[in-house]
Amino acid sequence: MTVRDFLQVVWAGKYYVLATTLLVVVGAWLYLDRQDTVYQSTAVVQINSAQSVIGADTSQAASVDVDPDFVTSEEVAAAAAEELGYAGNPAVLALGVTPEYDTDAQTMSVIADAGSPQGAQAIAGAFARSYVDHLPTVRDQQIAELDERRDALRKQLATVQKQLKGDEDDPLAAAERDTIITQYQAVSALRSTMQSIVEPGTLLSAANPAVALGLSRASVLAMAVLLGLVAGVGAAFARRGLDFHVRSAEEAAAVGGVNVLAELYGVKAAAKKAGSSGRLPITSRAASPFTESIRELRTATRVSLGHEPHRVVVVTSADPAAPRSFIAANLAASWALSGLRTVAFSADMRQAELDSWLPAPEGWSGVGTELRPTTVPNLELQPVPDVMMDPADFLATEVVRKMVGRLRERADMLVIDAPPVLAAADATILGGYADGVVVLATAGRTDRYVLGEAIQRLHINDVPIAGLALSGVRGDRRTQYATRYGDGERGAVVGDVKDGRDAADPAGQPAKGSDGAPGSGTAGTAGTADTAVTGGSGAPRGLRRAARPASTR
């Protein structure tokens, strides 16, 4: 996957990325809002020691017992609670205190956690001072234990002396006597050293200003944004992986195995506007991404069918969601406006919509099921036949075959609006009468499997496929530039159009277009179409009062 593919996937799932990021950030914010900030302060107590001389050449440092449990003992906690004025259980207060002894530096760190910086600093200082005050008591207890040890050694020595009086040469008794004497001397030396320690501990550093534990709120929110973006990108790729719809022209061509004739831009907006105004976009002077893509489809289809006269093209779709009838109406109008005699055949007997997109001119009276004119010059419409037979059975009859033959001979281009391929056999039957079939798919809505099945069904029945047309594609800068190019020149030319003549062509002959058909040039198309259709009023006669179709298919 290239960087561009990666960015396209992320952009396609941008709402997933935004929603996931927002969800994670809101969750982090709520978590932080419900969490109480814990502050921590530390006070340090220096443990004092003295050298204890054991022998002539032996000495060791002696200090009070530095068991960390003394810091949170009942006596120290009670004294600290009294200093702080804490009326609750001192043991509860001690739960927020953690002692740590540094053997090398001989320091005891008193670490206190609390819900406020002042509280943490006060607790750490109170416990440190109470611990310093408690150390002399610990020293005295140790001296008392040494006294008990000396008394025990005296008793052992007295017993051994009695043994030696009875037998002065007893080697075991003599050795035991020497050992007891050595131990007694060491205990006595240690006792003297402990007595020499006037201050067993001193407050080395008072409690420092408390700091908040953990990450700051800003850091947590920044991490939440990063995590949300990563999760959102993952969701975008998961969405893409689980999405079975056609997304691009390249994908549609790969799935169907046929060429994509054109990408149709702004179809939904164009259909909505046409439904409310009663005017096909292709008949308008103003170019738009949609009208330019319809002309591109017209050119590509004509090239695919060949430039011989009396060609028949069927417009169908892979699924019912595609705006098939709207595209067929604009495609037929585009050929008509380019100077070709065109007939549109409304062959969807199940949901006839082409009749509504191509109404009869104002004041026209005739039989509703017969070939009739439309408000577009050079364009006639064969309405949907009114029969009691099943549509597929009727379309397969010789009557319809001959009807298509007559319409073919009457027109340079015959455009047939057919139902979706997989919805019924109608499109397959009508495709057998045509020179090519244009299959319409919708980006983001047409399932890849459905598109493949539709193309395969047409192939199985030997139906000639002209290619695919992909609607639902968003325009880009290229399409916007194409519709704005030459706006100034186009406006000057169109302003001089009178009676269907182009000011650049006094003879009134349509200009040659890009597809080789007469009148398909920009100025010629606009002038011929708009003047003939609107009669110079800027709005089509009759079409403005046409009923809006039930849908845009």
TrEMBL record:
<keyword id="KW-0175">Coiled coil</keyword>
<feature type="coiled-coil region">
    <location>
        <begin position="143"/>
        <end position="170"/>
    </location>
</feature>
<feature type="region of interest" description="Disordered">
    <location>
        <begin position="484"/>
        <end position="553"/>
    </location>
</feature>
<keyword id="KW-0812">Transmembrane</keyword>
<feature type="compositionally biased region" description="Basic and acidic residues">
    <location>
        <begin position="486"/>
        <end position="504"/>
    </location>
</feature>
<keyword id="KW-0472">Membrane</keyword>
<keyword id="KW-0547">Nucleotide-binding</keyword>
<feature type="transmembrane region" description="Helical">
    <location>
        <begin position="218"/>
        <end position="238"/>
    </location>
</feature>
<keyword id="KW-1133">Transmembrane helix</keyword>
<feature type="compositionally biased region" description="Low complexity">
    <location>
        <begin position="525"/>
        <end position="534"/>
    </location>
</feature>
<dbReference type="InterPro" id="IPR050445">
    <property type="entry name" value="Bact_polysacc_biosynth/exp"/>
</dbReference>
<dbReference type="InterPro" id="IPR027417">
    <property type="entry name" value="P-loop_NTPase"/>
</dbReference>
<dbReference type="InterPro" id="IPR005702">
    <property type="entry name" value="Wzc-like_C"/>
</dbReference>
<protein>
    <recommendedName>
        <fullName>Lipopolysaccharide biosynthesis protein</fullName>
    </recommendedName>
</protein>
<keyword id="KW-0067">ATP-binding</keyword>
<feature type="transmembrane region" description="Helical">
    <location>
        <begin position="15"/>
        <end position="32"/>
    </location>
</feature>
